[in-house]
Each structure stands twice: as structure tokens, then as C-alpha cells.
Fold this sequence. Notes:
Layout: H1 4-17, H2 20-43, E1 62-64, E2 68-69, H3 71-78, E3 85-87, E4 92-93, H4 95-104, E5 107-110, E6 116-118, E7 121-123, E8 129-133, H5 138-147, E9 151-155, H6 159-171, E10 177-181, H7 185-192, E11 200-202, H8 206-215, E12 220-223, H9 230-241
Parallel strand pairs: 1-3, 2-4, 3-5, 8-9, 8-10, 10-12, 11-12
Antiparallel strand pairs: 5-9, 6-7
Helix pairs in contact: 3-4, 5-9, 6-7, 8-9
Amino acid sequence: MLDSAAIDRIVQNVLKQISPSSVAAPVKAVAAVSTPAVTGAKAAAPKPAPIVVPTPVSTSSVAILDRVITGDLLAEKIKGQKVPLVIGAKSLLTPTAHDYIRIHRLEVTRATAGVTTGEKGATSATARWKLAIVRTSPALEKLFGELGGAWSRELLGCPDDAAALAISELSRGAVDGVVIAATQSYRAACRANRHEKVRAAYITEPAGVRAARDQMRLNAIVIDPTAKTYFELRNIIAAFTAPWPESKK
């Protein structure tokens, strides 16, 4: 039979084996190793550098002399750049081409015999007359194809934009006169006349041009091309661009 001293030794050995300090030690060791490893992995993750895409910029003209010019052809040749566009004297612009020119606000000039073309574009004589088109017609398109290199044109979205273009061109002395083609003719003329350098009138016939010239130094006219034939438009513009009489200069 065990004496009391032996029993005390056995109890002490059992208590040592189940002591909390002997269990907690490995847990602390694991925590000390695992926590820095996870934190270090997160801190080492690199941030991606931002990607910068440059916007195409060009000051050269683009010449497209195809017989028929579509919106897809313009998108292929111009590639989103805002550049002056030179088209052939006989080129026809489809509705999608007109939309592309209007949306991108391109300045359009028809090539003449004096135009030289090269790999990077085309140049022509400085235009002295500007045609600002808000509304066009087959008759006006035909007439513009015959006007020659002294003319350039720009397609606009509304009569206010056309009036602003006329003010800009005439106040800088860039052109001798501006023809605005729009159905809201009175509005376009009124807006243009807000600038002291512009003297615009809504014209329906050649006699109206002559009457306006007698009363003021007319330098801009507004016409509604949808209500005019080719010959009517030609006669109005011919009267507008005719040389000033010596007595009126």
C-alpha cells in the first residue's frame, strides 16, 4: 500500500503535466511566426501604374478625292482628328458623311485645279468667301461644286452656330463675305447682326441683294436653300459676290 509521501509525488507529477503554462507556450510561438508573414505579404503588393493614352493632334489638311464620300471613309481617313478636309470638286457627300462632318465640326473645302495634294494632305488658295451650312439641298451642293477655290464651307448644327461663325470670320477679316444656308433665316441674320462688324440680311432674290447693298455695306446674307432652285441660288450668290460699284466703295 502507498504511503502518503508517494501519493503526494504522484499528484504533483499529474499537476505539472496539465499545467496551463505548458499548453500556452506553443500557441504563442505560432502566433509570433505567422502574423508577420501575412502582414509582410500584404505590404509587398505593388500598385499598377496608370496608363495614359495620347490624343491625336494634327494641323495638316486631309484630302479625300473619291467620287462618293461616306461617313465610314471619313472615319478611316481622318481617324478622329480635327483637321481641315479637302474633297474633290465632283465628290458627293452621303448623309453619313454630312453627319460625321457636323459632329466633328470639320471645315470642308472643295479642291480645284489649283489644289496640290501630297502624302500628308492638301493646300489651296486662301478662301475669300465662306458658306456656313445649317441646311443644305441638292441644288446648293451642285452650286458649291462649281464655286471654285475662292470658297470654303463649314457644316453647323444650328443658326446660332452659323451666326457665330460669320461673326468670327468677318471680324477677323478672314473672308470678304459669308453666306448662311438655314431654314431659320431671320434668326440667323438677327444673331449675326449683333456684332458691329457684321451687316447681314435675309435674301430671297437677287434684287434683295442689290437693295441691301444700296442701304448698307452688306457682307453676309442668309438664304433658305430648301425653297430655291439651282438657278435662283446661283443668281443670288452671283449678285452678292459681284464687285462693288466705284460709287459705293
